[in-house]
Every structure is written in structure tokens, then in C-alpha cells.
UniProtKB/TrEMBL annotation:
Species per Swiss-Prot/TrEMBL record: Hucho hucho
CC terms in the record's Gene Ontology section: Golgi membrane; trans-Golgi network
Protein name as catalogued: Furin (paired basic amino acid cleaving enzyme) b
Entry keyword set: Cleavage on pair of basic residues, Glycoprotein, Hydrolase, Protease, Serine protease, Signal, Zymogen
Recorded family membership: Belongs to the peptidase S8 family.
InterPro entries registered for this protein in UniProt: Galactose-bd-like_sf (IPR008979), Kexin/furin (IPR034182), P_dom (IPR002884), Peptidase_S8/S53_dom (IPR000209), Peptidase_S8/S53_dom_sf (IPR036852), Peptidase_S8_Asp-AS (IPR023827), Peptidase_S8_His-AS (IPR022398), Peptidase_S8_Ser-AS (IPR023828)
Lineage: Eukaryota, Metazoa, Chordata, Craniata, Vertebrata
């Protein structure tokens, strides 16, 4: 996986005898429309058990960047309000981008580009007979392919400046990741990544020390203190019953985790369900369903970009439109806008539920399909949220043996009377250290004071080995934790 330099995959049973500690990091991100104010005392339960005015004329057959209908992401709704991504800079963290592609050259930004693999400023991909390094170029076109040039199509934010960081075509170390995540953070607004730990149904991995520091510095110092915006694909391990909860990149509170839906609004076969998923865009599905049209290597076009790899750049483009509407948005403001304006209509899955404040949410889709028009409309007059507070509390400080199930509750005061007091809730992170001899049989749930249940870890039966596990999760609503 990603953090330690092992293999990365492009989105293209344990006895609990070691000390078990649970910590909640509560952040007052002021989500008044989604989360109620927290009234003390909080009561958390931990359960463990085993078991448009624009005339666009791209070349045929590419009617638009998506061979899916762009109206379903409401890009035209943003364009009709005059927003095309102008003044916003996006970079693609990947295997490079073809900077001289006729659909990208106009918007290419060398200041948002670098070759970390070779240590130079040119992000041009390494060409091979099989065109393996096409991934980044395809992602870039989704964001910023130029309009009205009779080439491939048009990007969601077709006036956005686009760069690329070539960092996947070599050993992906902690230093490589950190360098990429922190590149020119006063110039780049949005970083889009469509990669992560291997989708094998058993890997638990995430950013290591330097990459974690890069994320933290990005959100605290990037964009003049407003915070870098990190958009991440949720992963393609659905066939292996993988869980993006075990991916420390898409599961970070500092990233916007984006999943996929098919042309017909179904869960794709490759999709991973997890509580950290925030929203969804379109991508590929079954062979008879349309895929994503975008730029390709050797100055060509493709109509077969697939997976959550294709979903994250679409989200990055929509976020660029919202940022043009209000350049003072913080990284947390953008999470608020995504949650407020995403909608579940026409997305089919059996895991939709209604949370404690009446908002529909799904582990497959997050809060639903992104809506570019609604995002830019809300962004224009958005009042920024207050500063982030983090309250860390211990639920279990002594070792606890678990035979088949452990359920425990504790009232929390959210650091009442202290500077870090949390008055309203944005994220909950549950941190557990445990040992069990069949890790894949574990399930962890978090149950909110209002009864919303979030699966922080689903069973992954590809896990067969004994290990000690440290788990840190990011549900997007106030929760109670349950582990099985």
C-alpha cells in the first residue's frame, strides 16, 4: 500500500486481549443543517463482537466530456451562472499528464506540475507500448479539457488551470507522497488523487508520518491558511469485498472521499462502501453502460475511462466551480457545501438510511450525487465556519477481553469548559488498538446519540492472519461506536 512504498493500485480471527482504547476527536464544524447541537452529556456506545449559455462544440463522437448526461451533475447549472473554474488551480497526483495534449495545453499550468519520480519540472508521462501511464492524463481532461476547440470534449471546469504531479511511476515512498501533497500549496487550490492501498480485500494502509504531516500542513497553511482541498477516490475493491474504511487516505478527515454510480444510478461492481464516503459522481458500470469520455495519451481521446478513478476528478472540477464562486472558502467550508447540496435522488442501493436530523445518507454514496449548480449557488454567499476544535476523550483505558461481543457506553462532556470544547459536531474519529486472530471477522459500528448507525469496519474475509490493529475512522455525523 501507499504509505510505506509498497505496491499501489490505481482506481483505474483475532482475540481481543491487548489494551483497547477508544478516543473520539470531535470537531465543531458547525453543520447546523445536518447535525444537531450537542447537548451534554453525550452518550456514546461501543459494541464489539466477533463472528447553459455556452455553445460547446467538441468533436464527434464526443458530445461532452461525459458520455453520461452532464445535466445529471448539473455542470450546466454552474456554467449558466457564469462559473467555469477561472482563477482556480487543480493538480492531478498520478503518473503524469500529457501537457501538450491539444485539449489540455491551453489550461496547462507548469507551476502546478512536477516530476517527483525523476526530480524535474516536467510531468510528461513515460510512454510505453501499452500506454500504462495514461491514468493521469485521463483524469486531467475530466477537470479542465478546453471548450469549443473541436477536440475530445469539455472539462467540468473548462477554464481551470491544470497541472500534474508524476509520482506513481516509481517507488511510492512516504517522502514521494509528502512531496506531492505539499507541492506549491500557496498556488494550487485542489489536489485530486485516484489511487490508494491495494484493493485486495485485506490490506489496511494509509499515509505514513511525512504524508500525514503534509495533509495537516495543507489544511492549516495551504491557500494562505484557508486550507488545501484534497479530493480522493474511494477505491475499486468491491469485487474483493474491500472496504474504504481500511484506506487511510480516503478515510482521512482532510480528504473529500468520492464514490461512483453507474449510468443508471446503480452501485458499480467495483464500488467500496464505507462511512467516510462523502458524495458521488458518475463513472463506469457494466459493459453495456456508458463510461467517461476524456483525454488520452498520444494526443488522443477515449470514451472508456472507468472506476472511482474517474469519479474523483469530476468532483474536483465541480469543487473548482464552487471555489471560483467564492475564493474565501476554507477546506471545511467545502465539506459543508458538498454535504448540503448533494442529493440521493435516483441513486439505488439498499443501504440508504435517514440520520438523526432527517438527512439521507449511504455507505455506498455518502450524501448523494454532487450538484454543481447548487454548489456554486450556495457558495456565493456562504459564511465561513468557525475554527476547528478537537476534543479527545478516552472511553476504555484498561485492557478488556472480549469473548463474542462487547458493548459499552459512556457519557461525554465534549470538553465542556475548556478551550477545545465542541459545541456542534462535524467528524467523529474512533481509535482502537486491539489484537484478534482473524482480523477479517471483525465489525465495528458507531451509533450516534440520535441512533444513526455507521459501519466503521465491515468484515473482510480475505483477512486470515493474526495481527495487532490500530484503527482510526471518520464518519461524517455524530456517532456511537459498535465493533463486532
Amino acid at each position: 500500500g501507499g504509505g510505506g512504498g509498497g505496491g499501489l493500485e490505481l482506481w483505474g480471527n483475532q482475540v481481543l486481549t491487548l489494551p483497547l482504547s477508544v478516543f473520539f476527536s470531535l470537531s465543531p464544524y458547525l453543520f447546523p443543517s445536518f447535525f444537531p447541537s450537542l447537548y451534554l452529556p453525550l452518550h456514546f456506545t461501543l459494541s464489539l463482537s466477533l463472528p447553459s449559455p455556452f455553445s460547446l462544440s467538441p468533436s464527434p463522437p464526443f458530445s461532452l466530456l461525459f458520455s453520461l448526461s452532464p445535466s445529471d451533475l448539473n455542470a450546466k447549472g454552474a456554467w449558466s451562472q457564469g462559473y467555469t473554474g477561472r482563477g482556480v488551480v487543480v493538480t492531478i497526483l498520478d503518473d503524469g499528464i500529457e501537457k501538450d495534449h491539444p485539449d489540455l495545453a491551453t489550461n496547462y499550468d507548469p507551476e502546478a506540475s512536477y516530476d517527483v519520480n525523476d526530480g524535474d519540472s516536467d510531468p510528461q508521462p513515460r510512454y510505453t507500448q501499452r500506454n500504462e501511464n495514461r491514468h493521469g492524463t485521463r483524469c486531467a481532461g475530466e477537470v479542465a479539457a478546453a471548450a469549443n476547440n473541436n477536440v475530445c470534449g469539455v472539462g467540468v471546469a473548462y477554464n481551470t488551470k491544470i497541472g500534474g504531479v508524476r509520482m506513481l511511476d516509481g517507488e511510492v515512498t512516504d517522502m514521494v507522497e509528502a512531496h506531492s501533497l505539499s507541492l506549491n500549496s500557496q498556488h494550487i487550490h485542489i489536489y485530486s488523487a485516484s489511487w490508494g492501498p491495494e484493493d485486495d480485500g485485506k490490506t489496511v494502509d494509509g499515509p505514513a508520518k511525512l504524508a500525514k504531516e503534509a495533509f495537516l500542513r495543507g489544511v492549516t497553511e495551504g491557500r494562505g491558511g484557508l486550507g488545501s482541498i484534497f479530493v480522493w477516490a474511494s477505491g475499486n475493491g468491491g469485487r474483493e469485498k474491500d472496504s474504504c474504511n481500511c484506506d487511510g487516505y480516503t478515510n482521512s478527515i482532510y480528504t473529500l472521499s468520492i464514490s461512483s454510480t453507474t449510468q443508471y444510478g446503480m452501485v458499480p461492481w467495483y464500488s467500496e462502501a464505507c462511512s467516510s464516503t462523502l458524495a458521488t459522481t458518475f463513472s463506469s458500470g457494466n459493459p453495456n453502460e456508458k463510461q467517461i469520455v476524456t483525454t488520452d495519451l498520444r494526443q488522443k481521446c477515449t470514451d472508456s475511462h472507468t472506476g472511482t478513478s474517474a469519479s474523483a476528478p469530476l468532483a474536483a472540477g465541480i469543487i473548482a466551480l464552487a471555489l471560483e464562486a467564492n475564493m474565501n472558502l476554507t477546506w471545511r467550508d467545502m465539506q459543508h457545501l458538498v454535504v448540503r447540496t448533494s442529493h440521493p435522488a435516483h441513486l439505488s442501493t439498499d443501504d440508504w438510511s435517514t440520520n438523526g436530523v432527517g438527512r439521507r445518507v449511504s455507505h455506498s454514496y455518502g450524501y448523494g450525487l454532487l450538484d454543481a449548480g447548487a454548489m456554486v449557488a450556495l457558495a456565493q454567499n456562504w459564511t465561513s465556519v468557525g475554527p476547528q476544535h478537537q476534543c479527545v476523550l478516552t472511553m476504555l483505558s484498561e485492557p478488556r477481553d472480549i469473548s463474542s461481543r462487547l458493548l459499552f457506553s459512556k457519557s461525554l462532556d465534549a470538553c465542556w469548559g475548556k478551550p477545545e470544547y465542541v459545541s456542534s459536531l462535524e467528524h467523529v474519529q474512533a481509535r482502537l488498538t486491539l489484537s484478534y486472530n482473524h482480523r477479517g471477522n471483525l465489525a465495528i459500528l458507531l451509533i450516534s446519540p440520535l441512533g444513526t448507525r455507521s459501519t466503521l469496519l465491515a468484515p473482510r474475509y480475505s483477512h486470515t492472519h493474526t495481527s495487532t490493529v490500530e484503527i482510526q475512522r471518520k464518519p461524517h455525523q455524530p456517532h456511537t461506536v459498535s465493533v463486532r
